[in-house]
Amino acid sequence: MARRNDVRPVIKLRSTAGTGYTYVTRKNRRNDPDRLVVRKYDPAVRRHVEFREER
């Protein structure tokens, strides 16, 4: 069985702190059609900041 990449694509979450740090994850395009924004830990600035989806 092949994996359906069009429904759950791989996305990059880039830090809004300007450090260039990224997380890589998958998202369900049907549930979240807009760009994803998540608060996660950025080790470069050693605190939690917003990470936005990058295309």
UniProtKB/TrEMBL annotation:
Q: Which domain of life is it from?
A: Bacteria
Gene Ontology CC, one term: cytosolic large ribosomal subunit
Identify the InterPro entries for this entry: Ribosomal_bL33, Ribosomal_bL33_CS, Ribosomal_bL33_sf, Ribosomal_zn-bd
Q: Where does the signal sequence lie?
A: none
Task: List the transmembrane segments.
Answer: none
From its record, what is one biological process in GO terms? Answer: translation
Gene Ontology molecular-function annotations? structural constituent of ribosome
What PROSITE patterns does UniProt report for this protein, alphabetically?
A: RIBOSOMAL_L33
Arranged from A to Z, the UniProt key words for this protein are: Ribonucleoprotein, Ribosomal protein
Q: Which family does it belong to?
A: Belongs to the bacterial ribosomal protein bL33 family.
Q: Which HAMAP family match?
A: Ribosomal_bL33
Q: What is this protein called?
A: Large ribosomal subunit protein bL33
Origin species, per record, is: Phytohabitans rumicis
Q: Which gene encodes it?
A: rpmG2_1
